[in-house]
Amino acid sequence: MLNGDDNMDFMSRRSIRKYKNMPVEKEIIDELLKVAIIAPTGHNARACEFIVFENEKEVKKLIGIKKAGANFLETAQAGIAVVVNCDKAGTWIEDGSVAAYTIQLKAHEMGLGSCWLQLRDRFSPNDEPSDELFAKIVELPENYRVLCFIALGYADEEKAEYTDKDINLSKVHYNSF
Known about the structure:
Mean pLDDT: 94
Low-confidence stretches: none
CATH superfamily: NADH Oxidase
Structural class: alpha+beta
CATH class: Alpha Beta
Number of helices: 4
Shape: globular
Order of helices and strands: HEHEHEHE
CATH architecture: 3-Layer(aba) Sandwich
């Protein structure tokens, strides 16, 4: 949500894992995709592509893709998988991460909740790599890798905004560690 100054309110963006049973409008998903497509990439490679899961039924195909941490897919109403053509980008993890977080920021700005589901270097309950399982589900070409899935929906939970108390400035170093 934008605050009164029309600036992004980063302190109120939280990962949302519980969603209302309300579909996410195609127009909103289109806006999320626009900002993801123009997200910065290394060497301007533009190797990121996106697979949209348009509704709750499609998202539920991913339930069980990870051993733990994917329960929120039960109520997610839509989602976007961030995939990258590795032939085009040596910085595929970085590029995909920037695109994924850009989606989350825009979703927050538009009144949606979101949560990142890590697929790279994760495993299913059957110990199959989550990214390989995902690749089979969506028939991903061999030269592409999936980084993550961003679950989307209208929040059915409230989380407190971050405050200055949450900001640990001892993590900031100037000119050397």
